[in-house]
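Need tokens for this chain, all 301 residues.
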Amino acid sequence: MSFNSDIFEHELKKRKQYIEACLEGYLGGEPANPPVIHQAMNYAVMNGGKRLRPIMVLSAAQIAGAKPEHVIPAACAIEMIHSYSLVHDDLPAMDNDDFRRGKPTCHRVFGEAHAILTGDALLTAAFEVMASNAEIEGIELPDVLRVIKEVAHAVGSQGMIGGQVLDLAGDSDKLTPSDLTLLHNLKTGELFKASLRAGAILSKLGEEGLAALTQFALYFGLAFQITDDILDVSGDQSVLGKPIGSDKRNVRTTYTSLFGLAGAREKAQQNVEACLESLTIFSSEADFLRDLARFTLCRTS
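Here are the structure tokens for all 301 residues:
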């Protein structure tokens, strides 16, 4: 079956809109006291993200034959965690970015102190929301606890935070290809992995399927990061919503700095092919994930 990017983008948009409607349910309405922190949380989450991680949660549930709405709390919680990480990444002490998705970053709108607290609040709220998945009929408490444990590990010191620490230490041209792969497996791949595994675990997918989705997530994370590096060199700033060339200005090791633009594109292709190979145990129920991997190669933002 051939890949049609227009058809896929339409489907991706539908799933994104569904996720955003659900996120509104957790974050919308009149801000509670104190209003400023809840306004900032809403601003940080509802600012036009791709929603890939919650979409992955739902996709894994569908592969397992479950209803997407059964895993919505976990999906929304993971997006809240991702949003918190971006708020903190943008801070002056980290990447010092003024724009995110074409809008002023959270600390530029609400101040640095409130941005720090916004990230803290989103991370904390995420686990409250994730725990509420146990209230969904048909979802078993041991599975919810397993998901909470896996997500916590994925975003902790041996996952996303660990990757961020390596990234801060690696603002130079000293990283080797294996260093860079480890950095991005931790910083990006671990949360993709937790997203797919969360939807699968809550939906009772077997261990063989879990292993396949785990492999997919790690290859997808690398493909996604490589294309990010490519877009930072050759992307359109008006489409990306942030300045291009930031990696070069910050003297960061990237796939393009190590392998050149053509080499980075080849690496991205190789990882997408590995994504597809990891899904061979599934039939058409995994077609969305297959197309998501293919789409990574032609995305513009």
